[in-house]
Amino acid sequence: MGIFGKNKKGEVSPKLSKKDEPAAEPKKTEAAKKAEPIVRGPLVKEGFGQSHRILVRPVSTEKASRLQALGKYEFIVAKGANKNEVAQAVRDLYGVKPVSVRMISGKGKFVRFGRFTGKEKDFKKALVTLKAGDSLTVTEA
Fold first, then answer.
1. Within 13 A of 47's CA, how many CA atoms are on the CB side?
2. How many Cβ atoms are within 10 Å of 55's Cβ, its own excluded?
3. CB 41 within 8 A of CB 125
């Protein structure tokens, strides 16, 4: 057969020699795994499950900016999210444990464009309160 062999489908494919095979990565010891820093911060998407999908975006209004001075942050969240999921998402993405979470459900407004009528999406907001001294760095994406 030479340097070629047949795979399960009967197709001819080149055989790899030992030197052509990729080298195995060295295994990490427990101490090396613990020494790796835990990356947390806004918009972290890997390693924290669905947290980045729970918090859709921060609310940036005058009222929301006044509340930030009091340690309260407002977020648009997924419609199916509950208080526990929002608190966990804030803990995962920002590394701060909230004191309380309040939820607000809103109906989308009816709008018109000339003779065409429509409706904005319904939304859900969360008001997250942090303990005194804690803060978040929220950036508008």
1. 10
2. 25
3. no
- What the block records as the tokens of 9 is 């489908």
Alpha-carbon distance values, 124 to 86, 87, 137 (Å)? 11, 15, 21
Residue with tokens 């909230």: 98
The set of residues, in sequence order, having a beta carbon less than 8 Å from that of 15 and lying 6+ positions away, is: 3, 4, 5
CA 41, 85, 69, 99 dihedral sign is negative
Give pTM, 2 decimals: 0.62
Say which residue the tokens 């947290």 belong to.
51
pLDDT digits (tens, 9 = 90+) for 37-73: 554 555 455 556 778 889 999 999 999 999 999 999 9
